[in-house]
Amino acid sequence: AYSTKEDSTTRPVGRYPIPNKKDMPYDIVELMEEVEMKTGFLPNVFKAMSHRPAEFRAFFAYYNAIMNKDTGRLSKADKELIIVATSVVNRCPYCVVAHGALHRIYSKQPALADQVIVNWKLADLSDRDLAMLEFALAVCRADNITEEHFQKLERHGFDREDAWDIGMISAFFAMSNRIAHYIDLRPNKEFYTMGRVP
């Protein structure tokens, strides 16, 4: 489903039809054009979610609420690393590839996301990052979350609101991973090379 062969470009983005641009609501077209202008291409998740306009709006509104907020101690790179680590567990090629690319761009570390994809426990992570991913992965796996999980985060400078942010990103992307799975969402080829060379 995520082949990088040249002939894979003729395959559809996913299992569901993508509406014609002229048939889409104006606000969705406007957002898609803004994203495409900013990045140089339109990530396939926008195309796929446009199949259901109301769900598109809800999905991206929630994405923006957790990923683009200005408060808390999580950087953009932290958030992307959480998505990469949890999407590996959820076996989601789209999110691993797309958010690995975003992590490389925000962190300016071209190898770290790849290390986390292979084995996060052996990656070049700080103790803070390890604690953050350990909590995110506990939420991802639906482990029994205890006071000890929160205390460990606090020892590494995260408060309860940061724990909420980590948990919410992990939970939201568990949903996103499942959506990508059943609709057979393929990563854009652009994601594979983004941020690899500083």
TrEMBL record:
Which domain of life, per UniProt? Eukaryota
Signal peptide positions (record): none
Q: What Pfam families has UniProt attached to this entry?
A: CMD
| Annotated InterPro entries | AhpD-like, AhpD_core, CMD-like, Uncharacterised_peroxidase-rel
Carboxymuconolactone decarboxylase-like domain boundaries: 53-101
Which Gene Ontology molecular function entries are recorded, alphabetically? peroxiredoxin activity
Q: Which NCBIfam families match?
A: ahpD_dom, peroxid_rel
Question: How is this protein named in the record?
Answer: Carboxymuconolactone decarboxylase-like domain-containing protein
User: What species was this sequence derived from?
Assistant: Opisthocomus hoazin
